[in-house]
C-alpha cells in the first residue's frame, strides 16, 4: 500500500507561496487559517533557506496521541485526517504537533478556538467523497479523484513533492545525484523516523 | 516579503477586523448574484445582466458539483511575462476550480502565489462593478450609455479647444495583443502620438538598447532555453519573486549542467539565496561592473575573437573605454573587490554557453539604455548570442508587455516598430484601408504626426508646465487610463497636481486604481469597469516572444465589458459627439470596418488577422488565430527544452507559440524563431542573423557580417535588407509571381520586405535561404545614442559627491516635447546628500504585481503581505534607534515627501541602502485614503507608495524613470 508523504526540497523552494494560495483557492480556506505556509530561515543572509510547511501526515502522529476525543484517524494511504464533528477545539494537538499544522478559526475568551482545521492532503474528511458537506467542512477531495495535493502539483519550482513515499524519495534521490551534493530534505526524519539512503 | 512574522494574537485580530469590517460596505459578487436571482424586479434595474449569469446564481458557492459535467478552459495567467497556462474548471458559467496544466511547456502545471490565486480575480468581491463618476467629490453610479456619451462629449470639447494632442491615451501591458493594437490604432485615428503603456516604465530602455545593438528589442532566447546554460548571470533582477516559475527552468539548468548561477545585485535577493556566487554592488554602478569584467576578459584574451570579427562592429572603441576601468577604479566606484569580479568574468567568458538575465534593476535608471547596451556588449564580446544556452534573457514584467510593445503602445512608433515616418503611416494606411490624407487630417498637422509624443513618466509635467515649454499646441487636458496603476511613476506629489489640472480623467480598469483616489479631484472623473483577460478572448505574447491564445473562461462579471467593446462603443459615442458639436471628424466607421462585429464588439480573431496582414517587420504574420489555437490544444506535443513540436503531431517542427519572427502568412508554416540571430538554423527553420538597420557602412568599415551567414544561405556573406531594388540587382526580381508584381507595381513599385503586403520580397529572399531583414553586424558602438559607447554616469541623487565631477550625468536637454533636466538637478546632490544619506531602491514582491491594486484586492494574496515596509540594514537601524517592525518615516529629497511604513531590519540590504516594494498605494504622506474609494472597491491592503518619495531622473533615450537609485532619510515614527 502506498504511503503518502510530503517532501520539500529546500534547494528548490523560493518562497513563492504558490502552495499557500493554491491551497486557499482549492479549499476556499478563510482568511486567518493557513493550512500551509512557507517558513524562511536565515532570512536575508547567506544560507537562507525556505521550506513549505503543513501537516506532514506523520507515521506515529503526536496529534492523534494527545487528542482527548480521538478525533484523528489514518487512512489506508497513511493520510492523517480528523473528524470535526468530534473535535472539541481543545488545542492539545497544536501543542503536540512539531510542525505547527493545527489551525483554529477563533481566538476567544477562555481559550475557545472552534474546530481545529489542518491540511487534509487534499483528501477531504470522513463523509462520502466529494459531496457538498465534505467540501464545506474539509475542502476538496482530490485524492478521491485520483489527483495529488494541489500545493505540490502547482509548486513553481517543483520543490514540494507529494505522493507515495518511495516514489518521491526516488525523485529526490535522482535530483541529489544530479546536483552532486546532498541537501536537507527538511522535516523528513522528524516526521517519518526513517533514514534516507541517498 | 516578510512582515509576516508572528505578532501573536493581537495582529491576527486586527487583520481579521480589517478584512471583515471593510468589506461590509460593498456588494460582493455572491450577494449580487443572489439579489439578481431572487428579485425579479431587481433584474430590470440591473439592465445588462446576461441570462447565463442569472442561471449561474444557483451554483455560485464556488464549489464544483461533481455529479454534473465540468468544462475545462485554458487561458494565460494575467500577471508576469512567463506566460503560465491557467486551466479553469467551469460549471454553469461559474469558475469553480483551477487545475494544473501539465501540458504547457512553459509552466508544466505550476504557478506562483499569484497564478495559483487568479480564480479570485473573477470572484471579484472588490472589483469595480458598474460605471461611476465623481460628482462634487462623491462617487455616483451611472449607466454605460451615459458614461460613453459624457466622456465623448468632453473629449470632443478638449479636441476643439486644445487640439488632439491634449488628450493622453494611456494603454496597458495587460491588454491582449488585439486590445493593444486596437488602442494604438485608436490613438492614431484620434490624431495623436500621446499614447503609451507600462513598457515605458519597465523595459523601454531594454527595447531601445538591444534594438540599437542587434536589431530587435526582445529577449533573444527563452526561459526554457536557460536549461542549456552552463553559466547564468542575473544582474538587476529578482526572478525568484518577480518571475517565480522561471526559476523552475533556472534551477533545473543549474542542477542538470551543474551550472554557475551568479547574482549581481545591491540586495541579497531570494534569487541570490540560490546562487553559487553573489556579488553586492552599489546601486547605479552597473556599467563599471560590466566594464570591470570586460577589463579582465580583454586582459586575459578570454573574448571570442572570431565572433567579434565576423559579427560585431566597433569593439575596439569599447576596449578603449574599458581600459580605464582598472580593478582599483571599479572597486572605488562599485564596491566590488577585483578578485571576485575577475572570477566572475572568467566564469562567464570561459564556461559557455553563458547567458545574461536582467530586469528592471538594469533598466529603470537614468543610464538605462546605456546599461542595456553594456550588457549586450558583454554578451557580444564573449560570443554568447545566437545559440542554445546563450543570449540576453530579458525577463519582462507584465503578461503582455512584450505584445503591447510590439503593437506600438508607444509614443515613438506605430505597430510593429515601423516608426512615425511618412512611410510608416502609408504602410499602416494601406493595411487599415484608409488613405494617408485621411490619417493626416486627424492630426494637428503633419509635423505632429511624425513627432514622438509625451511619455507616461511625464504626463503630469505636460499638464502643469508653462505652455511655452511644451512642444505642442496646449498642455495635456484629458487623460484616458486603460489598465494602469497610478502609483507606478515617480514623483507622485507632482502627479497629484497634474491630475488635478486635467479637465477630464477616465479610468477604465477592473479596479478603481490609485488614479481614482490619489488627487483631490471632485468632478469630471469617470471609472469604467473593464473585465480581466480571463473574461475575454485574445492572444498574448510572453517574454520569450511565444504567442499564446487565451480562451474566455466566463462572461465579464457584473457590468464590466471587454476592452474591444469599450473602444468600439466609445468610437461610436465620439461620432455622435462630433456630430453634435459640428466637427467633421468620424471614428467608428473607418476604424472598425475591417473587423467582424459580434455581440456589439469586434472579435479578437478578426483583429489578429489584420495584425497578421500588416506586421511584417516583426514577423507577426504567421501566427494566425487558427495556428495559435492549435498550439494551445496540443501543448503537450512540444519539447521542454527546444520548444519544438514533436514529429508526427499536428504541430511537428513548430516552436511553441511561434515566437516572432514567424515569417510569411500562416500558409507558409514557418515554425517561428525560438532563438534570435541563430545562424545554425535555416531561416525557414527559425534561423537568423543580426539585423542591419543602420546602413551598410560606417567610416569606411562595413556594417554587414563578414564570413558568417545563416545555414543554407545562398549569399555566403553579409547582405543588406531586401527591397525590390535589391532583388533587381541580384537578378531575383522575376522570381516574383505575377500577382506579387501586380501588387507591388500597382502600389508604387518600390517596397522593402517589411512594407510589401504581397509578401513577395520576403518569399523570394527566403527562397534563397536569406533572412529578409539582411545579415549585418551587431553594433558595439551605437552612434545615434547620446553615449555611443556606454559610460558611467552617477545617479541624479548620489551619496558619492566625490565622483560627481568625474562621472556627471548628461547636461540639461529636451526630448519628447518636454525639457529634460540633468546636471542642474544632479547639482542638488551636493546640498541634500548630508541630510538624506541612505540610497533608496525599489522592487517587487512575489505576492503582488505592478501597482498592486488587483493583487492587493485578492484576499488569498493580501493575507500574505499586509504592511508596506522598508528594508533597512541593522547598522543603519541601530544608528537611528529603529527596531524591527516599528513604524518609521522614510522621507525623500524632493517635495518634502515622506511615507509612513514599517521597518524590516535585515542584512538583505547593505549598509547605506534601503529597499521598498512598489506595489502599495492608498496611503499618501501618512494619510489613509480608503474612504476615497467607491464603496466596496477598496483593496484589502493599503499602504504608502514608494513613488511618493522617488525623485527626478530620466533616461535620455526613452524617458525611463529612475526608481532604483535615489536618496532618503529614515526616522522612527
From TrEMBL, chain A:
Signal peptide: none
Alphabetic keyword roster: 4Fe-4S, Iron, Iron-sulfur, Metal-binding
GO MF assignments: 4 iron, 4 sulfur cluster binding; metal ion binding
Top-level taxon of the source organism: Bacteria
Stretches assigned to the 4Fe-4S ferredoxin-type domain: 4-34, 78-107
Protein's recorded name: Formate dehydrogenase
Species whose genome carries this gene: Falsiroseomonas bella
UniProtKB/TrEMBL annotation, chain B:
Cofactor(s) this protein requires: Mo-bis(molybdopterin guanine dinucleotide); [4Fe-4S] cluster
Keywords noted in UniProt: 4Fe-4S, Iron, Iron-sulfur, Metal-binding, Molybdenum, Oxidoreductase, Signal
Domain of life, per lineage: Bacteria
Single Gene Ontology MF annotation: 4 iron, 4 sulfur cluster binding
Gene3D superfamilies reported in the protein's UniProt record: 2.40.40.20, 3.40.50.740, ADC-like domains, Dimethylsulfoxide Reductase, domain 2
Main location: other
Protein name: Formate dehydrogenase
Amino acid at each position: 500500500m502506498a504511503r503518502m508523504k510530503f517532501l520539500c526540497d529546500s534547494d528548490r523552494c523560493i518562497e513563492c507561496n504558490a502552495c499557500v494560495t493554491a491551497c486557499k483557492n482549492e479549499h476556499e480556506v478563510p482568511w486567518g487559517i493557513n493550512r500551509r505556509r512557507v517558513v524562511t530561515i536565515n532570512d536575508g543572509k547567506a544560507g537562507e533557506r525556505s521550506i513549505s510547511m503543513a501537516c506532514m501526515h506523520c507515521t506515529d502522529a503526536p496529534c492523534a496521541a494527545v487528542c482527548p476525543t480521538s478525533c484523528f484517524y489514518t487512512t489506508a494511504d497513511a493520510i492523517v485526517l480528523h473528524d470535526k464533528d468530534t473535535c472539541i477545539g481543545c488545542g492539545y494537538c497544536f501543542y503536540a504537533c512539531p510542525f505547527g499544522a493545527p489551525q483554529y478559526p477563533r481566538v476567544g475568551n477562555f481559550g475557545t478556538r472552534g474546530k481545529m482545521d489542518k491540511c487534509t492532503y487534499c483528501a477531504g474528511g470522513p463523509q462520502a467523497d466529494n459531496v457538498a458537506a465534505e467540501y464545506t467542512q474539509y475542502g476538496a477531495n482530490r485524492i478521491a479523484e485520483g489527483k495529488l495535493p494541489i500545493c505540490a502539483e502547482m509548486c513553481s519550482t517543483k520543490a514540494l513533492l507529494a505522493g507515495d513515499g518511495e516514489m518521491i524519495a526516488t525523485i529526490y534521490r535522482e535530483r541529489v545525484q544530479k546536483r552532486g551534493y546532498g541537501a536537507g530534505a527538511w522535516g523528513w526524519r522528524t516526521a517519518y523516523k526513517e533514514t534516507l539512503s541517498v | 516579503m516578510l512582515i509576516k512574522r508572528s505578532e501573536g494574537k493581537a495582529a491576527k485580530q486586527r487583520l481579521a477586523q480589517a478584512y471583515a469590517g471593510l468589506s461590509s460596505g460593498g456588494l460582493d459578487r455572491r450577494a449580487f448574484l443572489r439579489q439578481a436571482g431572487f428579485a425579479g424586479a431587481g433584474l430590470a434595474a440591473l439592465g445588462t445582466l446576461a441570462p447565463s449569469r442569472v442561471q449561474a446564481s444557483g451554483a455560485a458557492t464556488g464549489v464544483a458539483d461533481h455529479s454534473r459535467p465540468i468544462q475545462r478552459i485554458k487561458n494565460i495567467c494575467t500577471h508576469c511575462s512567463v506566460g503560465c497556462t491557467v486551466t479553469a474548471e467551469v460549471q454553469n458559467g461559474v469558475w469553480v476550480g483551477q487545475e494544473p496544466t501539465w501540458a504547457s511547456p512553459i509552466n508544466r502545471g505550476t504557478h506562483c502565489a499569484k497564478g495559483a490565486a487568479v480564480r479570485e480575480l473573477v470572484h471579484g468581491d472588490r472589483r469595480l462593478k458598474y460605471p461611476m463618476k465623481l460628482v462634487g467629490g462623491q462617487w455616483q453610479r451611472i449607466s454605460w450609455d451615459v458614461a460613453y456619451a459624457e466622456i465623448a462629449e468632453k473629449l470632443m470639447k478638449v479636441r476643439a479647444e486644445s487640439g488632439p494632442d491634449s488628450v493622453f491615451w494611456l494603454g496597458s501591458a495587460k491588454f491582449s495583443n488585439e486590445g493593444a493594437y486596437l488602442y494604438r490604432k485608436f490613438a492614431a485615428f484620434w490624431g495623436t502620438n500621446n499614447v503609451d503603456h507600462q513598457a515605458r516604465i519597465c523595459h523601454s530602455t531594454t527595447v531601445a538598447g538591444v534594438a540599437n545593438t542587434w536589431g530587435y528589442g526582445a529577449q533573444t532566447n527563452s526561459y526554457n532555453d536557460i536549461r542549456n546554460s552552463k553559466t547564468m548571470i542575473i544582474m538587476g533582477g529578482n526572478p525568484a519573486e518577480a518571475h517565480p516559475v522561471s526559476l523552475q527552468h533556472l534551477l533545473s539548468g543549474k542542477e542538470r549542467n551543474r551550472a554557475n548561477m551568479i547574482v549581481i545585485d545591491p540586495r541579497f535577493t531570494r534569487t541570490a539565496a540560490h546562487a553559487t556566487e553573489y556579488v553586492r554592488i552599489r546601486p547605479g554602478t552597473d556599467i563599471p561592473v560590466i566594464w570591470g569584467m570586460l577589463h579582465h576578459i580583454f586582459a586575459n584574451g578570454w573574448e571570442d575573437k572570431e565572433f567579434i570579427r565576423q559579427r560585431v562592429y566597433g569593439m575596439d572603441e569599447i576596449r578603449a573605454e574599458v581600459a580605464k576601468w582598472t580593478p582599483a577604479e571599479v572597486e572605488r566606484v562599485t564596491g566590488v573587490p577585483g578578485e571576485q569580479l575577475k572570477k566572475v568574468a572568467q566564469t562567464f567568458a570561459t564556461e559557455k554557453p553563458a547567458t545574461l538575465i536582467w530586469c528592471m534593476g538594469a533598466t529603470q535608471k537614468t543610464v538605462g539604455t546605456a546599461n542595456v547596451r553594456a550588457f549586450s556588449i558583454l554578451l557580444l564580446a564573449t560570443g554568447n548570442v545566437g545559440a542554445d544556452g546563450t543570449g540576453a534573457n530579458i525577463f519582462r514584467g507584465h503578461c503582455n508587455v512584450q505584445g503591447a510593445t510590439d503593437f506600438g503602445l508607444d509614443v515613438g512608433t506605430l505597430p510593429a516598430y515601423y516608426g512615425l515616418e511618412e512611410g510608416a503611416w502609408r504602410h499602416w494606411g494601406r493595411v487599415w484601408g484608409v488613405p494617408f490624407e485621411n490619417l493626416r487630417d486627424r492630426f494637428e498637422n503633419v509635423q505632429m504626426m511624425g513627432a514622438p509624443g509625451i511619455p507616461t513618466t511625464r504626463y503630469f509635467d505636460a499638464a502643469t508646465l508653462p505652455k511655452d515649454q511644451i512642444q505642442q499646441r496646449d498642455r495635456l487636458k484629458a487623460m484616458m487610463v486603460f489598465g494602469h496603476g497610478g502609483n507606478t511613476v515617480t514623483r507622485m506629489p507632482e502627479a497629484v497636481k497634474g491630475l488635478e489640472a486635467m479637465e477630464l480623467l477616465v479610468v477604465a480598469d477592473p479596479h478603481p486604481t490609485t488614479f481614482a483616489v490619489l488627487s483631490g479631484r471632485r468632478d469630471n472623473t469617470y471609472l469604467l469597469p473593464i473585465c480581466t483577460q480571463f473574461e475575454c478572448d485574445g492572444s498574448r505574447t510572453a517574454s520569450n516572444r511565444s504567442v499564446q491564445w487565451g480562451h474566455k473562461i466566463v462572461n465579464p462579471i457584473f457590468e464590466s465589458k471587454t476592452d474591444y467593446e469599450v473602444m468600439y462603443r466609445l468610437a461610436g459615442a465620439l461620432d455622435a459627439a462630433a456630430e453634435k458639436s459640428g466637427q467633421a471628424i468620424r471614428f467608428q466607421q473607418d476604424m472598425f470596418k475591417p473587423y467582424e462585429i459580434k455581440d456589439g464588439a469586434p472579435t479578437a480573431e478578426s483583429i489578429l488577422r489584420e495584425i497578421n496582414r500588416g506586421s511584417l517587420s516583426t514577423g507577426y504574420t504567421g501566427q494566425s488565430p487558427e495556428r495559435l489555437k492549435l498550439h494551445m490544444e496540443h501543448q503537450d506535443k512540444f519539447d521542454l527544452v527546444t520548444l519544438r513540436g514533436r514529429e508526427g503531431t499536428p504541430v511537428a517542427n513548430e516552436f511553441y507559440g511561434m515566437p516572432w519572427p514567424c515569417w510569411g502568412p500562416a500558409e507558409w508554416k514557418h515554425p517561428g524563431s525560438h532563438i534570435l540571430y541563430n545562424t545554425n538554423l535555416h531561416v525557414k527553420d527559425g534561423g537568423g542573423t543580426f539585423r542591419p538597420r543602420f546602413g551598410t557602412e560606417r567610416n569606411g568599415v562595413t556594417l554587414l557580417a563578414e564570413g558568417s551567414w545563416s545555414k543554407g544561405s545562398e549569399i555566403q556573406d553579409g547582405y543588406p535588407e531586401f527591397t525590390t531594388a535589391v532583388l533587381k540587382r541580384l537578378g531575383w526580381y522575376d522570381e516574383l509571381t505575377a500577382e506579387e508584381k501586380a501588387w507591388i507595381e500597382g502600389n508604387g513599385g518600390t517596397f522593402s520586405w517589411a512594407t510589401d503586403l504581397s509578401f513577395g520580397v520576403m518569399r523570394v529572399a527566403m527562397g534563397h535561404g536569406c533572412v529578409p531583414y539582411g545579415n549585418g553586424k551587431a553594433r558595439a558602438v551605437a552612434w545615434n545614442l547620446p553615449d555611443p559607447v556606454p559610460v558611467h554616469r552617477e545617479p541624479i541623487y548620489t551619496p558619492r559627491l566625490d565622483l560627481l565631477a568625474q562621472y556627471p550625468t548628461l547636461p540639461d536637454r529636451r526630448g519628447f516635447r518636454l525639457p529634460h533636466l540633468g546636471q542642474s538637478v544632479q547639482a542638488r546632490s551636493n546640498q541634500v546628500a548630508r541630510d538624506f544619506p541612505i540610497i533608496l531602491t525599489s522592487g517587487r514582491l512575489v505576492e503582488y504585481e505592478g501597482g498592486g491594486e488587483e493583487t492587493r484586492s485578492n484576499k488569498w494574496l493580501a493575507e500574505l503581505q499586509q504592511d508596506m515596509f522598508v528594508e533597512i540594514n541593522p547598522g543603519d537601524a541601530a544608528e537611528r534607534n529603529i527596531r524591527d517592525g516599528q513604524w518609521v518615516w522614510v522621507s525623500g529629497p524632493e517635495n518634502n515627501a515622506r511615507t509612513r511604513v514599517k521597518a524590516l531590519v535585515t542584512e538583505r540590504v547593505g549598509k547605506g541602502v534601503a529597499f521598498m516594494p512598489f506595489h502599495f498605494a492608498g496611503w499618501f504622506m501618512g494619510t489613509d485614503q480608503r474612504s476615497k474609494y467607491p464603496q466596496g472597491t477598496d483593496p484589502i491592503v493599503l499602504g504608502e507608495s514608494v513613488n511618493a518619495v522617488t525623485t527626478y531622473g530620466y533616461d535620455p533615450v526613452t524617458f525611463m524613470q529612475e526608481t532604483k537609485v535615489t536618496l532618503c532619510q529614515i526616522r522612527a515614527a
